[in-house]
Amino acid sequence: YELYGIDTVFAERNGFTFYRRAEEYATDREVWQDVLTNPDLVVVDRNVQPVDFGPSLLSFDVDVGDEVVVANQAGRNHTVRIVGILDSQIVRGLFMNGTFVQEQFGASDPSFFMFKLNPGVDELTVGREIERTFVTIQMQTFAIRPLIEENTEVTNAFFDLLEGYLAMGLLVGIAGLGIITMRNVVERRQEIGALRAGKRRDARRAV
Hints:
By secondary structure, this protein is α/β, with parallel strands linked by helices. 47% of the residues lie in helices and 15% in strands. The chain contains six helices and six strands. The chain has helices spanning 8-13, 28-37, 98-105, 123-133, 144-151, 153-206; strands spanning 3-6, 18-21, 41-44, 67-71, 77-86, 94-97. Strand 4 and strand 5 form a beta hairpin. It starts with a strand and ends with a helix.
């Protein structure tokens, strides 16, 4: 499973929100600050929890408060506690103290970058330009927005289908009410006509 060592910039500026976080934290930023300073704490992506709608990319089933074991190249185990689960399924991995990852896993230089683009900028065009600029190191880019849209296609299709069924049910219901109303009107006319005829006969008898 991927392991990401976070730095101060990431902890302060990342735009990830949490699906669930430990009760001792009042805000998402507090979670990141604690993970930044404590190598025994980690944040994990949403793939470790089943989803209600859409495809489930369940890697392994854990929850906030559970402990997992990470091991370095030498086989040394280190137990960490999950204090937050991200809303996102796009970036898969464990996020933990960057210094610990450098020292224990031999991560020397940054190998994963996240860019926040200005409004209106096409992310695919920017991605191609970055790959062209850093082609010598075989840099690969992916745009998160299209990935999210692709990931939610099944969910959106389900809700579109549900909306269609609801609209059809509404039309059938309105048509049914119209038919019942027309039948009531016709039946009432017959009843009213019969009552009027009866009153006329009674009036003639009285005369």
